[in-house]
Amino acid sequence: MLTFDVVVIGAGAAGLFCAGAAGQRGLKVLVLDHAPKVAEKIRISGGGRCNFTNREVGPANFISENSHFSRSALAGYTPQDFIALVERHGIAWHEKHKGQLFCDRSANDIVQMLLKECEAGQVTRWQPCGVHAVRPKATPSDDGSRFELETDQGAVSARNVVIATGGLSIPKIGATDFGQRLAASLGHRIVPLKPALVPLTFTPEQWAPLVPLAGVALAVEIGTSQPGDVAGGKRKKNAPPAFMEDLLFTHRGLSGPGVLQISSYWQAGQPLRINLAPQRELASELKQAKVGSRKQLSTAWSHALGEAVPQRLAQTWLSQLGESHPTLRADAPIAELKDKDLDALGQSANAWDIVPNGTEGYAKAEVTAGGVDTNELSSRTMESKLVPGLHFIGEVVDVTGWLGGYNFQWAWASAMACARALAACAENPV
Ligand SMILES: Cc1cc2nc3c(=O)[nH]c(=O)nc-3n(C[C@H](O)[C@H](O)[C@H](O)COP(=O)(O)OP(=O)(O)OC[C@H]3O[C@@H](n4cnc5c(N)ncnc54)[C@H](O)[C@@H]3O)c2cc1C
């Protein structure tokens, strides 16, 4: 039977990076994947250009039951380290907004880079190759192997196994819950999984009045709206963050970067709070506009919203609100309106509370939140505290990054922490 120092299951971002780094440190590594092509998620990421990291990365950019778990790995392998690797491979890149770094040419450049790193580490790669069983041995064999694996290409034994099978998002390109199921079968707790970085949906009745807005995009402030999130006008320290990002109206609900960000924090039944004009205090602007004015409400409303809010949204908003507040007619002279009506109009756009009925699910989600509970993993090595020699890296772990290159940085950092630890404790590599 073939014996390896390390068998990595999953040839995606974390798996390929870990395999190459471990191989280059003198370990005999096999990486296998059931999909015919490697790293399909990298290929489709960032609109085909792969947002491979972010200039500013810290634990605050990640969601996990244990908010400190990512700290050590992120500090051990930084965005600068990955940028240096990308540059050594001659890959041109550029920065988009908020520190997001993308390939100039194609995401495939990152895939090719990872494959070259694996070649440099003399990594064996089997693909497509399914895995039917991973069995820890009761006692290590004479050759030091602690696991036996059954694969499509026969049985192999391994001193260490690294699970890098990712999350459930985009099942049509090979995503499975293999890693989470294996972990659970070996006694690990799994933090419940849910689609994240995903568009949010609404009931057809709720959304019908807003369907005409499909295609409208604007910059908003968006957060969850739970009683207690805000105190004295400020978000509490442990409340989910609010994001200043773009929002997109679609035929079924809301999308765009702002909604993807907040979707990772959103819990079923919770309202969202959206400020459609975060730079403006609409109620006070309307009340000021009323003084000595002969304008109609629709004109004053457009003026108060300014250019930041598209006219199509401004007018649809007013006509929708007018249905429940008959005094708020578009042609009503603003001078005749009561302050409380103008307050209601301003508030409706500065603090729009709306409850999604769900998400577009794993078919559209960029990532899967939840995963292998970090309390049962070493944050320094990614090794299981329950099964010696078993490691979990990347998205299979309960660490979920924001939109903006954070998920790939977690894949690189957790993979490198694991590879270094494997090399450090390998006394006599196979
Ligand atoms: C459309 C889209 C765009 C994205 N864009 C970005 C972006 O620009 N920036 C960013 O930071 N993040 C982005 N992400 C998220 C990012 O792709 C993932 O977080 C990252 O790929 C996770 O790396 P991973 O190695 O843990 O898992 P993956 O890259 O998903 O790799 C898992 C691998 O395991 C294999 N596998 C699964 N099950 C089995 C099994 N049973 N047996 C064998 N092999 C198996 C899969 O085939 C796959 O190759 C995007 C995601 C999507 C879906």
Set down the secondary structure blueprint.
Layout: E1 2-9, H1 13-24, E2 29-32, H2 40-44, E3 51-54, E4 62-63, H3 71-76, H4 79-88, E5 93-95, E6 100-103, H5 108-120, E7 124-126, E8 131-136, E9 147-151, E10 154-163, H6 178-185, E11 190-196, E12 200-201, H7 204-207, E13 217-224, E14 230-231, E15 234-235, E16 243-249, E17 253-255, H8 257-263, E18 272-275, H9 282-290, H10 297-305, H11 311-324, H12 339-350, E19 352-354, E20 358-359, E21 367-372, E22 390-392, E23 400-401, H13 406-424
Parallel strand pairs: 1-2, 1-10, 2-7, 10-22
Antiparallel strand pairs: 3-6, 4-23, 5-6, 8-9, 9-10, 11-21, 12-17, 12-20, 13-16, 13-18, 14-15, 16-17, 18-19
Bound molecules: flavin-adenine dinucleotide (FAD).
Distance between the termini: 13 Å
Mean of residue pLDDT values = 94
Named at the architecture level, the CATH assignment of the largest domain is: 3-Layer(bba) Sandwich
CATH superfamily caption of the largest domain: FAD/NAD(P)-binding domain
Q: Please count the helical segments.
A: 13
What is the count of structural domains?
A: 2
